[in-house]
Structure formats: C-alpha cells, structure tokens
Amino acid sequence: MTEFDAANAAVEAALAAGARYADARVMHRRHEAMSARNGEVRELVQDEDSGLGVRALVGSGWGFFAVPDVSDPAARVAGARAAEIAAASGRVPGPAADLVPLSAQSGSWANECLVDPLDVPLSVKGDLLVGVTGQAHRQGAGLAEASYQIWDTRKWFTSSEGHRIDQHIRECGGGMSAIAIGEGETQRRSYPSYHGQFGTGGWELVDRMDLPAHAIRIAEEAQALLRAPQCPAGETTLILGDEQMALQIHESVGHAIELDRILGWEAAYAGTSWLDLARLGNLTYGSELMNIVIDPRIPGALGSFGFDDEGSPAAARYAVREGQWVGVLAGRDSAAVAGLDYAGSVRADGWARLPMVRMTNVGLEPGPHSLEEMIEATGDGIFMEYNRSISIDDRRLNFQFGCEVGYEVRNGKLGRMVRNPTYTGIGPQFWQSMDMLASTVVPWGLSNCGKGQPFQVGHTGHPAAAARFTGVRVGVRG
Amino acid sequence: MSTQLAATVLELVSRSAPGAEAEVVVRREDLALTRFANSHIHQNVADASVTVRLRLFVDGRTAAGSTTRTDPEGLRGLVDRTLAAARLTPPDPGWPGLAPPAPLASAGTVDAAVVSAGPVERADLVRAFVDAAGGLTTAGFCSTRHMTMTLANSAGQVAQGAGTEVVLDGVARLDGADGVARNSAARLSALDGAVLGARAAAKARAGADPVELPSGRYEVVLEPTAVYDMVQALGIYGFGGRAVNDRHSFARVGQAQLDPSVSLVDDPVGPDAIGLPFDMEGTPKRRLALVSAGVTVAVAHDRRTGAEIGAQSTGHAVLDIDDRSGPQPANLRLCAADQEGEPAVSEVDGPAADSEVARLVAGVDRGVLVTDHWYTRVLDPRTLVMTGLTRNGVWLIESGKIVRPVRNMRFTQSYPEALGPGAVLAIGRQGVRLASKYEVSSTVVPALRLASWNFTGGASG
Questions:
Q1: How close does chain B come to A17, measured CA to CA in Å?
Q2: Which positions 233-252 of B are in contact with A (Cβ < 8 Å)?
Q3: CATH 3.30.2290.10 spans which residues of chain A?
Q4: B293 occurs within a structural domain
Q5: Cα A293–Cα A295–Cα A299 angle in degrees, nearest 5
Q6: pLDDT tens for residues B293-347?
Q7: Could you tell me if B254 and B336 lie in one domain?
Q8: Closest C-alpha to A81, from A25, A17, A27
Q9: Which of A110, B62, B106, B175 has its CA 20 to 30 A from that of B331?
Q10: Residues B170, B224: one domain?
Q11: What range defines the domain where residue B328 resides?
Q12: What's the number of domains chain B is made of?
C-alpha cells in the first residue's frame, strides 16, 4: 500500500460518511537538532514521525482527524472520524462554506539540496558547534551557544477533487550567540541572528554562514555592549539592518495580510488585522519604495514549496505595490468568503495539524540605495541591527522591537555603539516614513512562527533589505 | 501496552549496547479542539498520537531521538539511530545520570467525562458560551485532552501517570471592543460555558468608545488573566535552574526580592492539578515553594542543572531541544490572600471579572483595570523588563469605581519590580486555574492590585 493509497482511503471514507469534500495528507518527517554551549554538546535529538491527517467538509462544517497509523483500516477510520467531527460543527453553524475553484493538480516537487544535511557526519556537525562556542567562551562570553536544525519532509496529498501531489522538502540552518553577563544586565550578540538563518536546501546553507569566522567577533561585541552607553531616547531617523527588517516585515506586514485574521477567524488568539478587506486595492500601506511580494517559488528561501497543503500550485503575488495594499495570504475557503479568486498560502505543521493560512516567502523587492548611502545621507540618527525582542498588538499595528546593537549616526558617519536599542511605532505610519531602501536583499528564514490552536510552528521566508525611516521613537525603557 | 513498549526499547538497547544508560518515554495523547469565530464553529480537529522517546548515555556521550512508529521495525530503527548518534557525538562530561527508582506522589487526575467527550460535548460548551454572549460576536475554543505517559529507565525507575484537561477560552466582541473569559480544569464538570460567555460579553459591552490615556505610571488592578502572564514570565526567566546557574536570572535564593505578601509555589500534584506526576527524566514531582513571604527560597532544577551546583533535581525536567531555557516550574500558584470568613467569590455586573476584582478596584483612588496581557517579550532577562500590550478590556478607575473604558496601551515594565517590597497593595482571595498554551499544565493566579505600572505608549504610538 502506497502513501497515496492511504490518503485516498481516508478521502473515500470521509465521502462515504457524508462529506461533500475531503482531502488527506500522509507525511513523513525526520528532524535533527544539535546544540552546544561553552564548548560542549548539550543536546542531540533525532526525531521521526509519520502519520495521516484528513479534512472533511460536511454541510458548512469542517472536521479534521489525524492518526500515526497509515494502514488502510486506520486511514478509513480517520476519514470517517473527520466527517463525524465536521457534522458536529453544525451544532454551532455558520454561513455556507465553499472553496475557490482549483483544477485537479498532479505533480511532484523537491527543492534543491546540494549536500544532504542528514548525511553530514554528526562528528563534523558536533565539532563545528563545539568549536565556535568554545572560541566565543574563551574570548570572554559568559554563555556561548550554537545550534542547528534539519527537517526532511515528504508528503503525499490527495483530494476528492482529484489532486495527487507529492513533495520532498529539505530545510536546514542554524546560528550562534554570545552572552556577556554584567552585574546588572546581560548583553547578547549573535550570528547570523539569534533566531538563526534557515532555508530550503542542504548543509551548504550552514557552510556558507562560516560560523567560525564570527565567533570571536560576537563575543567581543557582547562584552563591548556592557560598557556602551544606553540608546538615547527620543524621535529620530532610524536605519535598520536587513535581519531586523525581516522581523519587521514578518510581524507588521506578513501577519497583517493573513486573510483568516482579516476575517476574524483568529480573533480570540493570534488576533485580527488592522486591514479592512473593503480597502483592498485602495489603502496606502507604506511609501512608494515599499513593494512586498508573496512568493513561494524563491530558490533556497525557507517558505518555498511546489504546492501548498491544499494543492494550490506555488505562485507569486504582490501584497503591497508601490506602497498600496493589493494582496493577501489566503486559503481556498477564506478566499471564497472574501470573494477573491486566489489561494495558495495554506500549510500545516505536520500530519496531525489542520492546514491554515500561513506566510510563505513574504518580502521586499530591492530598493535603489545602499546601506552606506543611507548612513552618509543621515545627519542625526540611529542604526540598529539584529533582533532581540518583538512585541506587537493583536491587530498588528502597534509594535515595539528591540535590537542587539545600535550605533549613533552623526553627520553621515557611524558613531558610538549603544546598548539596549529599541524602537516603537504604528505599522502604516512607520512604513510610510521609509525614505531609503537598500538594493541588497537577503532571504531570511524564520523557523519559529507560532499560530493556531492547537499550536503550530511555521517556517517562513522574508527577503529583506536595510532601510531608513524618519521620525521614529527610539530608546523606550522600563 | 505503553509499559511493554518501553520495556521492548530498553531490551533492544541492552542487547545492542550492554552497559548503556537508557531512558524511554512513551506518550499517548488524545487531543481534540473545537474553535469558533464569528459565533460559529469554523475549525474542529482531533488527533490520536503515540510518541516513543529514547535518551541514551553510552561511552560518555549522549543522544536522544523519538518516533511515532511503534511497530518492531520502527522501534528497532529508533534504537539503532540513537545509538549511532551517541557514538559519533562529542563527549558530554556533564551527564548527570538517570533518575533512580522513586515512588510517585500521585498517579495524576483523570476525569472519565473528559476522556469520553466527543465533538458534540465540545460543541455544546461552545453553544453555551455563544448563547450567553447575547448576540455579540464571539470567538474562542474548547479543547479536551487525555494524556498518558510511561517512563522507564535502565536504572530501574518505572513511572506511569495520566491526566486530563478541558479548556474553554473565548472573547465576545462589540464595535471594536473585546472582552475575554477563560478557565481550565482537569474535570469537564468544572467548566460553565454560559458563565464565561456572559462574563466576556459584559466586558465587551463595557468597552465601547474607549479613551486614550497618556503614557506614564499608573496604579493597576490586574485580573487573573493578566497576572497569568506575569507569573509565567517569572517561571520561565526567573525560577529555572538553567537561568539561575547561568546568572541571567533575577532570582537570588535567600534574598527578600518581592513584597512580603507574595508567596509562589510550584504545585504539580495538588488535588486539582493538571498534568503528570513526574518529569521528563522520571523524577517524581512535588510541591516546591519558590517564594515565601517575599523571600526567594528555591529554584527549579532538573538533574543536570541540579548537579551543576551540587543540588538534587526538583522534578522539573522538560523536553528542550536547544537547551536554552532548561528546567522550569510549569504549575505555578501565586498564593491568594486568606479568605477565611469572607463571602465566596461571585460574578458581578459590569466589566470586572468577579467580586474579588471588584473588591480590589474599590481600593483604588486613580488607576487602571487590566483584563489581559498580549505579546509580552523580555527585553532583559536579568532585570526581567518585559514589554507587551493590554488586551481584551482596559478601564480607568477613579475613586474606587470603573469610570470609562481605555484604549489598549503598551507597557515596558520589570515584573520583579512591580511585585517588589511595598509594591503589592492587595491580592485577590481566589486563584483562577488557567491552562498553559503549550503543555499539559496549569497556573493558578488571583487578581493583583499593584502600586505602579509603566505604560510607555498608547494605541497611537
């Protein structure tokens, strides 16, 4: 019995139990993670999970059931249970549910992977993490940590509309950080970021980072931060590095354009959005430099795939074009409610979780400037980089970010390092103040985007470039 | 069945690597969750899972792995893979050894009604919440969970436990104002959808046309839903052995760090506790006082962080891939004020969650009532300065009365400072049990009246 057979059995059983639509995914995922601190490996974990999840639509109600057993009998029981749950949804019914049309898709997809990360010897991986954390610790970091993660996912999808898709997605990445511990506070520097850098690809992604070349530098910078003056408080011109811009995009654009949030489907937990669907195509989100694209086709980016988890083929779409809001992240059911004709942004965290609207790759198109030009053009401001903290309201409007390090900018030159740099603002006002944008775009990958109940972790990509903003409040402290 | 699975894995390890130290955890979970939004059920899911986790220490090296495949081939693969990994990793000189055999304080709390609850029972609780909101738009979820866990190790420890949990959590919405009500319990009968729906609706109705307050320091009454966030942060960043050993926690054992009215315990084995009676290393859980009358008296350890300072594990090992957070107290109880001779806590009219919140509000000359916190993040773990926002209902208090709704505000506040000596003006007389968003555990918290809270921004920036 193949994985497609199991998925088909689940779909058939759901239809037999009364579903008017059903789809099923069989997934097999291997995950490997290792961490080290201060020159010692602290954890090595290798996980393997397999299972089947089936989704059924009965009347206007959805149901989902998942099992780790992918035998034919188990798949059929799962299909029937999904239909039973869907029927119970009708006890608190809503408007008729529908799906935007999608022709039956058939295909296979796999991302490029030059060096299979699961084939790289554990001793090589361990030596890398032990080496860089030992270097940073010896250089004075009280706490030096490094880690990598690898995911190898295969999935098989079928639906009652005739879809038949299989995909093989390999993702990996990692990073390291150095923490200097002072009397009253701690300071951290990381490389390439505290969250790490992740992508679809093989171990070549980790090799390219060249962690050993940066271990001593981040240890020294963390200690220098303990001695640096506090970030000044006030309103000023702010320049952000590309890694911090990735978080800014993720939090204040990516989540805001999720259609399920806009429709109120996440109102009680993840929250809603300040965006009003009635203004789609007629709302100024940012300055004319702001072009945000939803694109799951970017080679190597973490949010890339061939098809989403309800069978929509990967396609690019503007979310914001020349500052105007023009697109959303949607699924087939949410798009139907909103009267849109596209979906393509639905994914699930494993076989046991319901596919839901998620970011794919959501990022900036390049601008006309360089970081150096931004600094040279700034008489008085702050340059901040490397995310340290994130907080944003449930409408994705009012945000406050902290960065690991800041530098004063005076008369077109970088000045003193400052510690505890923070900035705060309101999404559209902030984006409308963006007056310079770099031409160099880096596809940052985030492997820890939380959403949904039960909780799901999503992998997202964010092409980002350094940018300059005017009139920003900085230096907020407790 | 789980015991047999664990024994099979231990036997496979013993045959392949005699002398290896091995620990096996078999976790079975039936989780079902019914979500509603726009006053109807829109997502309705369930899954039945089995996970077998193996941790090994062999020839001075450690590795761990897990699988959802419980057939002989799957178990064999787990053992072979993990043994191979352990042989290739760098040495682990800090290995603390396996948990020795020890009896458990309880077997956990299992409610048959939760075990048997299906989508109809969950839908009925949702229906009650929605109906009680009186026509307001509602959203939220109802979940039921039944988990059993068996741990066996090559040192002879065998621990079995089970637990149930039911959660109802929802908001009512009116013209941009949200009100929330949530509760969780080990027993299905403990939750009342109608009470929660009515409470959420009362808050939403009282939230219309909010005003914006200027930034600054205000006296506050925090409802249990907001206090939950504070206590969780204290547990994650303050009272975990990893953070303390690494010196990036504020906690200093033996020092009077909080107000004398504050006592904080981790209570995973009380009669109404949600969760399992042993930790992920097989150490029995027990009640652990962390703060007694404002004095920090202990922190939570697993075997590794305990060994680092010559202490015993307190039964707080968790699954933690990156080892950054380490052991944490997951069943915190902020002790409520003595309620002997006082009337029982009851529902009240208006936006206050209950009569205890109303009592604390009555003592405030000018301040802010906060229902909930949202998206709180640590700015500095050492001082535990957090930033976040209010959510689901904020009101201005004047002369002991709630006078008008306030728009959400951002705060940037050190939590230990807010609870510091002299800063806690009153504590509610009843704790509310609130479920963890991520694990099977719960936190019990009363309302708090605090002298000062640093609001650093309004809704407009």
A1: 16
A2: 246-248
A3: 3-227
A4: yes
A5: 130
A6: 999 999 999 999 999 999 999 999 987 544 557 899 999 999 998 766 677 789 9
A7: yes
A8: A17
A9: B62
A10: no
A11: 216-457
A12: 2
What is the value of pTM for the model shown?
0.95
Say how far apart CA B366 and CA B358 lie, in whole Å.
14
> Which residues 432-471 of A have a C-beta within 8 angstroms of B?
453-455
> Domain A3-227 adopts which CATH fold?
PmbA/TldD fold (3.30.2290)
CB A345 within 8 A of CB A304: no
Tell me the H-state helices in A234-369. 242-249, 259-262, 332-338
Share of chain A above pLDDT 90, in %: 96
- Structure confidence at residue B324 (pLDDT): 59
pLDDT band at A2 (very low <50, low <70, confident <90, very high): very high
Tokens representing B248 are 């990036």
Q: CATH number of the domain that B65 lies in?
A: 3.30.2290.10
d(CA A468, CA A370): 10
Please tell me the distance from the alpha carbon of residue A7 to that of residue A76, in angstroms, as a whole number: 9
| Segment A105-156, tens digit of pLDDT | 999 999 999 999 999 999 999 999 999 999 999 999 999 999 999 999 999 9
Percent of chain A topping pLDDT 70 = 100
- Over 90: is that where the pLDDT of A444 sits? yes
**pLDDT (tens digit per residue) in A11-56:** 999 999 999 999 999 999 999 999 999 999 888 999 999 999 999 9
Please say whether the beta carbons of B147 and B28 come within 8 A.
yes
Query: Which B-chain residues 324-363 have CB contacts (< 8 A) with chain A?
Result: 324
In this structure, the answer to whether residues B262 and B171 fall within a common structural domain is no
Q: In terms of domains, do B236 and B164 share one?
A: no
Q: What is the pLDDT of residue A60?
A: 85
b/e sequence A384-409, b meaning 16+ C-beta within 10 Å: bbbbbbbbbbbbbbbbbbbbbbbbbb
